[in-house]
Amino acid sequence: MTTQSRILIKGGKVVNVDFSEMTDVYIEDGVISAVGSDLQVAAGTRVIDATDRLMLPGGIDTHTHMELSFMGTTAVDDFHTGTKAAVAGGTTVILDFVIPQKGTTADPKVCCDYSLHMAVTWWDDTVWLLCHVSLRTNQNLKFFLENWDAMSSGLKRTRTTQVVISARFRSRVVFGEPVAAGLGTDGTNYWHKDWAHAAGFVMGPPLRPDSSNPRYLMDLLANDDLSVTGTDNCTFSVCQKALGKDDFTKIPNGVNGNEDRMSVIWEKGVHSGKMDENRFVAVTSTNAAKIFNLYPRKGRIAKGSDADLVIWDPEATRVISAKTHQQAVDYNIFEGMLCHGLPVVTIARGKVVYENGQLFTKPVMGRYIPWKPFLNLCITELISGKREPYTGEIIFIAPKRS
Ligand SMILES: [Zn+2]
After folding, report:
1. What is the whole-number distance in angstroms between the Cα of residue 118 and the centre of ligand 1?
2. Closest C-alpha to 230, from 59, 7, 39
3. Per-residue pLDDT band at 153 (split at 50, 70, 90)
4. How far apart are CA 357 and CA 307, in angstroms?
5. I need a labelling partner for 183 at 20 to 30 A (CA). Which of 200, 276, 282, 292 fits?
6. What distance in angstroms lies between residue 252's CA and the mean position of ligand 1's atoms?
7. For residue 10, how far is its CA from the centre of ligand 1 (angstroms)?
8. What tens digit of pLDDT does each residue of 290-315 get?
């Protein structure tokens, strides 16, 4: 099944950021070669029936830390299990934050495409110069400011989101990224009677203890105050978390999320009625593809785009559990959450990598995707929209006499 190089997906609804359309999608050699009806296809093409289902661009998780060495131990989900879990959840690209370690390689392990953010671990004149050059060449800079009440990647703080909202209101080029943990759960778990349960939620910055915070963040995501979604996926099993059993500052920071991000956002965002399917596509893939200069190669179902897509059943349900998830970590912060809307088939680079609960992944299926500098068109579009403002005549309506 995984060697199939031509696939026709018929009878479903293609959902892009700007419109949805009942149409078919033809994939050849890793690329979407046609979108339309009555497509001519080569003999031997596999046909997948997508009746009553949606075809969405594969998800882009903007924030993961696979196999990160941190606080004396190493995250249990490596680039292999982490990307396997990603495709099982409908995500076909991860953008991993790396703190480079000699000898670490992702290429032989990945099951879907990936790219990298580089962590700045010190600050001096050279680093300042590099950041300056990055901005001059329109590379983007991502801030993860744990101790500042300023913009934070992995938003969980109400005050931080206010900074992003007011900056965007003043037309500043700022994008906010809530993480799945902040959208699907909250910091009340730190008071759980079971130490292992509480430790499982320890991450930096921490989840807010206000149980209304997830709903608030989802509102902001739905109305375009926040733009993209990541997970900060950095998984340590319970025995690793136990390094801090007598001192919480020694608990390795990190939670799961990259397998469940799409389902959590569909459940809390779309199923709840806060956003439509097109906005879901915006916040789970398209906006990320635009910001990181991967669009329209990624984040869109169109002729010429990479064949990264997910066939989504909006009616199907599942209950999230560590017993059934694909991640290597031995607990799940969303344990017991009922989710409507599931990936049925995930296609990455034109190959079926997940179908009806079964994985068909192989290491080396994914590739490193470099970011191109100098393209701000998409970012301008994201901030101000495509249209010029109307400057023509307006009729006059005389005020009514009282
Ligand atoms: Zn992070």
Report:
1. 11
2. 59
3. very low
4. 20
5. 292
6. 13
7. 39
8. 988 899 999 999 999 999 999 999 99
Q: Output the CA 21–ligand 1 centroid distance in Å.
A: 36
Q: Report how far ligand 1's centroid is from the alpha carbon of 231 (Å).
A: 8
Question: Is the Cβ–Cβ distance between 28 and 60 less than 8 Å?
Answer: no
- Distance between CA atoms of 396 and 47, rounded to whole angstroms? 58
Distance 168 CA to ligand 1 centre (A): 23
Q: Provide the CATH number for the domain around residue 134.
A: 3.20.20.140
Exposed/middle/buried for residue 104 (C-beta within 10 Å: 0-12, 13-18, 19+):
middle
- Give the domain extent around 131: 55-384
233 DSSP 8-state letter:
B
pLDDT digits (tens, 9 = 90+) for 265-289: 999 999 999 999 999 999 999 999 9
339-355 tens-digit pLDDT = 999 999 999 999 999 99
Averaged pLDDT for residues 239-259: 96
Q: Is residue 49 part of a domain?
A: no
In the reported structure, the alpha carbon of residue 65 is separated from the centroid of ligand 1 by a whole-number distance in angstroms of 6
Cβ partners under 8 Å of residue 228, min gap 6: 60, 62, 175, 176, 177, 283, 287, 288, 291
Q: Give 53-112 pLDDT, tens digit per residue.
A: 999 999 999 999 999 988 989 999 999 999 999 999 999 999 998 776 666 677 778 888
In total, the chain counts a number of residues equal to 402
Q: Is residue 25 part of a domain?
A: no
- Return residues with CB closer than 5 A to ligand 1 (ion): 232
Q: What is the mean pLDDT of the chain?
A: 88
Q: Which of 110-114, 124-128, 339-343, 388-392 has the highest mean pLDDT?
A: 339-343
CA of 34 to the centre of ligand 1 (A): 37
- Number of domains, the chain: 1
**Rounded distance from Cα 196 to ligand 1 centre (Å):** 21
Distance 64 CA to ligand 1 centre (A): 6
Ligand 1 centroid – CA 48 distance (Å): 37
Centroid of ligand 1 to alpha carbon of 63 (angstroms): 6
Tell me: pLDDT of 328 over 70.
yes
Q: Which amino acid is at 318?
A: R
Binned at pLDDT 50, 70 and 90, residue 146 comes out as very low
CA angle 202, 275, 152 (to 5 degrees): 35
Q: Is residue 237 part of a domain?
A: yes
66 CA distance to ligand 1 middle (Å): 10
